[in-house]
Structures are given as C-alpha cells and as structure tokens.
Amino acid sequence: MVTLYKKIGTHSIEFNIDQHQIVEFIENSFFDLHDKKSKTDLNIKIALGYGTPFVDYKVNISEENGKVIFKRSDYLIQAEHSYSSVNIFVNNELALKHALMNLYSAYIVYHNWGLLIHSSCAIQDGEAHIFAGESGAGKSTVARLSQPRELLSDEATLVKITPDKITIINSPFRSELTEIGSSEIAPLKSIQILHQSIINKRDTLKKADALVDLIDKVFYWAHTPEETKNIIGLMRLLVERVPTYNLYFKKDETFWELIS
Amino acid sequence: MVEYIRKSTFETVHFDGEVIILNTDNYTLTKLNETGGFCWSLLNESQSVESLRESIFRHFETENNNVQGDIEVFLEGLLECDLIKVID
C-alpha cells in the first residue's frame, strides 16, 4: 500500500493505493501537499478491478448503510456521510479520473465550499473568465484559442464561493491541456455560455436565466434535500455576484475583444 | 370550487421579480415571471382560480379579461411540474 498526500482546491487529500499504475496517475495528476496537517480533509482508498470499461456517463446515486454510493459501469464510490473517508473501485484510469471528479464535486457541495462546473477558464489581466457549454459547444476550443493566456481549467472549473467573493482555483481535472499554470487562484470576472457562430456577439443573461443555464453544468451532487439547498444557495451567490453572458463566437481568438 | 396549494418539496430563488423553483423530488426547474411569482407566493395557502384572479386584480390594478385563462394554464403547469396539489 502506497500513501500519497495531495491537494485539490484548498483541501488536503490522503490517497491509499495498492496498484503501481494508479500511484503514477495520482502522482502526475495532483499537486503535492506541502503543509501536511495532522488530519487530512479527505481520505481516499483506491482499488482496481471493478466493473466494465466506460459505457456512458449515467451515475446511479443511492444511500446504503449510512453511506453515499455513486455507481457507474466503470466505477463505484462509497463515501461516509461527511466524505471524510471514501473507498473508490475503478475499472481503469479514465474511470478513476471521472470518479475523482464525481467525488470532489459532491464533497465541495456537501461542505458548501463551491462548485465544479463543466467549463474552461482563462486569465486575462489577473481576472478569471469562465466558458461553459454543452458537450461540443467549444470549451476546449476556447481554451486552446485563449493561449498564451493562463488556463485554470479546460473542462472542469473549480469555483470557490463565499458571500464575499468568488474565486477560481487551478483545476487538476484536465482533459488534454495538461500544463499547470503559475497562478493558482484568480477572482472570477465573467461567465460565458458558449454558442458557436459565424460572428462574435455577447449578450447579458438575466440572473434567473443564468441560474437555469448554469445549474446543469455542475458536475455531481448527492441529491439529498440538504445538498440541493446548498447547490441553489451557491448558484444564487454565483449569478448575483458575477455577470453571465451568452457568447456567440467564431473559431478564432477575436472573441476576446468582447470580454476584456 | 377546486382549490390548490403548494407541495412542500421545493427551494426557491428570487431575482429581479422572477422566481425560480427547484422541485427537490424530481429536480425540475421552473421559472416564473412577476405575476407567476406573485401567484406562487399566495399558494402557500389554498387558492382557487377565482381567488387568484381577485388577488391579481387588486395587486396589479388591472381588469384584464384573459387573466382567468392564464391562471388556469399556470395552475396546470404547476400541477405538471408537481409543485402544487389539488385539495380534496
């Protein structure tokens, strides 16, 4: 058994792993935890050998013996109620990556810390801009076109939400653009809902419409009444504090003229 | 006279007069405009089409004859979203 200490967002994680290939994946995917506290926020045990390779994104959420269970064809997550102690069983590396996104998303909603949003995020003049959309709407295209601006995410943005401020934290959940930026944190200035188009155009969304559009871009939560309440509260703070726009963009970097 | 009342499993958010209701049983979102939001606020107590119509007339100082049809469609919508129930 190998133990690794890592960091996701502002949380400390202890990973306990049996298999060598998983150790390598965790080593390469997450930042090291330098200031190891006596007790970590999350304690995660990982084992291979579960289920079948990826079939679809459907996750079954249930409760058994006081544990929250997230089940997909290629992964199984068993979490204690506060998520402090978690067992993950996976089929392969892709399953592990998705399982960890699922777990962390549920964890930060449970603790009312923030949201993991299906989107990319780039920094301009020290401020973060989110680009959200359905699959295929252009999140990673926008991320690529935004370089050399620093990217804080390319598929899953880590949004820390407090009543005073909304902050984006460098996301370790990357699809392809694996380089890790130097700034780890930036205030959130705007949110764009992406639509591919032949011209560039940006319209302000009403706050109610922004909430409706954004809530299905949140990755996972445990669907208990308490957590649904948390999601609604976090989303309300987000759209109240940060303007949301429909961004119609053509596939070059000129859309940035509408943003800064 | 048929009367309606809110179910209890929902969360609401208010923005600039509009109301969003999340049904916490089936996770559907319903967005209401100002008049809809006003009716929703009244439905914490039992209401009929007629009582809602009278309240709308008083609150918005209008005498629009189409209101009755709008209220019926509105209540049907809320029933479909499982946000209100008919009182027996």
From TrEMBL, chain A:
Domain of life of the native organism: Bacteria
Would you tell me the protein name for this molecule?
Aldolase
From TrEMBL, chain B:
Q: What is this protein called?
A: PqqD family protein
**Organism of origin:** Neobacillus niacini
